[in-house]
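Following up on my earlier message about zinc ion. Here are the inputs again, as you asked, copied directly from the submission form:
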Amino acid sequence: MGYAELRELQTALTTASDLASTLQQAPTRHDAARLVDVLRRALSVADALGAETGPTGCAEHPHGAVDPLYGDREDPLPPGYGKCLLCNDRRRRADAHHPHPHLRPRRPHLKLHGRPRQTA
Ligand SMILES: [Zn+2]
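Thanks, got it. Here's what our run produced:
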């Protein structure tokens, strides 16, 4: 599995997405056939990717080390982590730098700016 296959998959998916978003309310047979064609191509490339990955199941490091914590019931990996030790280490470093960015409260900038200050 190489970079070319990944690029082909990404191109096919982007094309499919573009086609789908430009579809009219009543797509023609031709439109539908084009979309199916592109999706089939993406599917076959994606299928080939999985077949050629090594023990890690990682596209980037197919023959890297498997994370020893993978499948550990007492100390399970966080959600979104895979079998690849290299990728999991990268995720751990990213998590350490940005702890739970999605949990940060949003600040209502606009409301604060719109309210006049009261000094009574
Ligand atoms: Zn990896």
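One observation from looking it over: The first helix runs from residue 3 to 22. Hope that helps, and feel free to reply on this thread.
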